[in-house]
């Protein structure tokens, strides 16, 4: 029985191939799908080949076996052709898309040459406008400053005041003893290694040059900020080294502190090693008028010539106001 079934199955396979090839060649578009045609023909052949005693259920088993062995090539062939058709269609669509892209004009980048030129022109115009406005503003400021006339002073620096000290001859002196004279005051100490000697030499040279150029005398005044070591005798020997008219003042530490505060002078001792120490202090010369009021100060950056010319200029302006 099994061998008879196997032979019948082989016969059905051969018939199925013949029928499939004919159906695919003649009825590609008008007839039903190949699987339906094959199924009908195979059913007729099965009924003619299978013995009469086999029932409907066995017929379905033969049909399932037949389609499981022969349906795959057909379906695979159909799927292969469909994929080929799809790929051909994809190629054609790709070609058509490329041809359509080729037919389109290529647009420029986000910034064209015209936009770039307009941007450059706008920037140049803004810069030119800014420069012109800046020049005009500066000219207005210059004109306004030239048009302003010099008016009366609204106030004077709070520099100077009363003091009560001892000169290098041992006499008590106050600010009133210098009234009616132009005075140039310098604060320092006799143990100063370099700065004080340099400044006092400059002061002495300026006093002589002022006498030569302007014909008036100015009183040079040295006030010590180291009263603990700068005694009257020490100060007297010290001032002789610079100028015969240089007046040295010392005194009680409290009186020295008051005078320094009145002239806004800073001074402080550095680290002490026994009695050998230095004093850090302001390096300023104060020009006082005949009324012992502050006129101008001169710093370390002024040399002899600028100090001389500055004092002469301040005296002329002072006299012109009187």
TrEMBL record:
Record's protein name: Thioredoxin domain-containing protein
CDD domains cross-referenced by the UniProt entry: SCO (cd02968)
Renumbered residue ranges of the record's region Disordered: 77-107
Binding site for Cu cation: 192, 196, 281
GO cellular component: mitochondrion
GO molecular function: metal ion binding
Disulfide bonds: 192-196
Domain of life: Eukaryota
Composition bias type Low complexity, residue spans: 95-105
Keyword annotations from UniProtKB, A to Z: Copper, Disulfide bond, Metal-binding
Protein family: Belongs to the SCO1/2 family.
Residues of the Thioredoxin domain: 152-317
Biased composition (Basic and acidic residues): 80-94
Family matches, as PROSITE patterns: THIOREDOXIN_2
Gene Ontology terms: biological process: mitochondrial respiratory chain complex IV assembly
UniProt keyword annotation of Disulfide bond present: yes
């Amino acid at each position: 029985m099994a061998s008879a079934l196997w032979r019948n199955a082989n016969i059905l396979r051969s018939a199925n191939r013949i029928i499939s090839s004919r159906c695919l060649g003649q009825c590609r578009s008008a007839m039903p799908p190949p699987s339906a045609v094959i199924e009908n023909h195979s059913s007729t052949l099965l009924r003619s080949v299978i013995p009469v005693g086999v029932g409907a259920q066995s017929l379905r088993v033969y049909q399932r076996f037949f389609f499981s062995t022969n349906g795959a090539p057909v379906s695979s062939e159909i799927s292969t052709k469909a994929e080929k058709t799809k790929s051909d269609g994809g190629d054609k669509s790709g070609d058509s898309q490329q041809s359509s892209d080729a037919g389109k004009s290529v647009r420029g980048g986000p910034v064209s040459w015209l936009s770039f030129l307009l941007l450059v022109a706008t920037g140049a115009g803004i810069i030119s406008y800014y420069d012109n406005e800046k020049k005009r503003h500066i000219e207005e400021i210059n004109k306004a400053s030239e048009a302003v006339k010099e008016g009366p002073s609204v106030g004077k620096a709070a520099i100077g005041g009363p003091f009560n000290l001892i000169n290098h001859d041992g006499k008590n002196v106050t600010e009133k003893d210098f009234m009616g004279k132009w005075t140039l005051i310098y604060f320092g100490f006799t143990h100063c290694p370099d700065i004080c000697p340099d400044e006092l030499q400059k002061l002495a040279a300026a006093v002589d040059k002022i006498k030569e150029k302007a014909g008036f005398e100015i009183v040079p005044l040295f006030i010590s900020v180291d009263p603990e070591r700068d005694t009257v005798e020490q100060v007297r020997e010290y001032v002789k080294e610079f100028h015969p008219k240089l007046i040295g003042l010392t005194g009680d530490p409290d009186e020295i502190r008051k005078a320094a505060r009145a002239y806004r002078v800073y001074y402080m001792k550095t680290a002490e090693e026994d009695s050998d120490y230095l004093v850090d202090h302001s390096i300023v010369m104060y020009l006082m008028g005949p009324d012992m009021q502050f006129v101008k100060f001169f710093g370390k950056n002024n040399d002899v010539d600028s100090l001389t010319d500055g004092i002469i200029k301040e005296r002329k302006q002072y006299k012109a106001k009187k």
